[in-house]
Amino acid sequence: MVSLDTQHAQSFLDDGALADLKPQIEEAHEAVLNKTGKGSHMLGWRDLLLDPDDALLQDIEATAHRLRRDADVLLCLGIGGSYLGARAVISALTPYLSARQPDPPSPDTPEGQSMHPSQPPEVRFAGHHTSGAYLRELLSDLDGKSVFVNVISKSGTTLETALSFRVVRAWMHDQFDAPSDRIIITTDKEQGALNALHEANDFYKKYVIPDDVGGRFSVLTPVGLLPIAAAGIDIHSFFYGAVSACEEISADAEHDALRYAALRYLLLNDDYDVEALAVFEPKLRNIGRWWQQLFGESEGKEHTGLFPTVAQYTTDLHSIGQYMQQGQRNLMETFLMPKKDPASLSIPETEDDVDGLNYVAGKTMGDVTRAAYDGTAQAHANGGVPNVTIWFDALAPQPIGELLYFFEHAVAVSGYLLDVNPFNQPGVEDYKSEMYDRLDR
Ligand code: PA5
Q1: Residues 119, 16 share a domain
Q2: What is the extent of the structural domain holding 190?
Q3: Which stretches of the chain score pLDDT less than 50?
Q4: Which residue's CA is the nearest one to ligand 1's atom 9?
């Protein structure tokens, strides 16, 4: 279960402010449930949880099984909502250091077959920027490995992804006898260049992104589910975690997801217009990057919204910690914390205690993290930074599914409180048209 702790934010709010906002919160929540708000034709991300498609989950699992058997690397090409969700969940739920053996290809491994068929493939990402250096190094590193590609683009026309796909396809043709059998596309049901390419090349598999699900809300569609399943993560538990959060939040107009939206709204009205999502477990940093897109693209329009940024503590306490404590006072902070310590690593005692650390001997690194979190939340509140904490059960598929839905629902309600359409992103087109002009499109 996901919950919100507001003890370090209450004193920053006027008495009764949250209670006074209740009717507006309920109205926004109802508009999400009943599809009566702005952009409500893009609420398909809820529908797919209200009526789960188990056959699709099974189909994705079957494809992932083949990838786990045949691929050393699954290369996912996509940008924005077409990669941030998968990357977030995979980072959160797989080991820091890959268990994959680093040994070179055996001369007995037939060309194009996995060197390590019993391990999930390494999932890598590209197509999310325009760096030629990155692509060149990536492809050189992939040389000799059994590579499969999942190109993910709802429009099928996003330049960063499309260009990377062009380069990667040419490389695949040089590397493999039947490159199309190694390519999976995830795109619109009929529109866009990826569909045309599929028609011409007959790729191994196509998954459809539903019309009514926008990129940043698509992690629970094949956009996120296929790479996540390929990485060896239990997508059934992950998906049904989101289903249970959807049921729970939909039935409770006082749920913490709504309190989170309300609190941020009240703080924004008091000129706290920057929100830092802070994690102490580095594995959660990419959940922060996913959250950043979800909130930034959904709220940041019509000259409103909190600017979302991500901090990884305690590392960043030694860089932006000074600013957080004593810089401009327009900041609020949201800590994202698992209730369960992901690893119980004890600190050993030494006989001589030369480093003077025996005072923590016998505690775990998790105990130290907890002290760092408690201390930071208190110190930042003392320094004028209202902060809240979102607690979730553990770094496991079901709680991560719950957490992602918590944020999706919160941002929809938040958009309606701000009176914007949370499901479009008209501003993103501006840099594209300037760029296309310069490329003589
Ligand atoms: O949230 C969104 O809709 C965007 O971030 C898109 O996901 C991103 O621009 C990529 O678009 P596409 O999937 O069409 O390539």
Answers
A1: no
A2: 44-233
A3: 102-105
A4: 80
Count of all residues that appear for the chain in the document: 441
Residue positions annotated with a catalytic role? 297, 318, 432
* Residue 80 region by backbone torsions, left for phi larger than 0, else alpha for psi between -120 and 50, else beta: left
148 and 12 within one domain: no
Please tell me if the CB atom of residue 150 comes closer than 6 angstroms to any atom of ligand 1: no
Out of 233, 250, 280, a domain closes at 233
The secondary structure of the chain in percent helix, strand, coil, rounded to multiples of 5, reads 50, 15, 35
Out of 129, 152, 154, mutate this one to test ligand 1's pocket (max ligand atoms within 8 Å of CB): namely 154
Q: Do 142 and 79 belong to one domain?
A: yes
Say if pTM beats, i.e. exceeds, 0.85.
Answer: yes
291-345: per-residue pLDDT in tens? 999 999 999 999 999 999 999 999 999 999 999 999 999 999 999 999 998 888 9
Rounded to the nearest angstrom, the distance between the alpha carbon of 427 and the centre of ligand 1 is 13
**Predicted confidence (pLDDT) per residue in 390-413, tens digit:** 999 999 999 999 999 999 999 999
Beta bridge partners of 185: 151, 206
Residues 140 and 13 in one domain: no
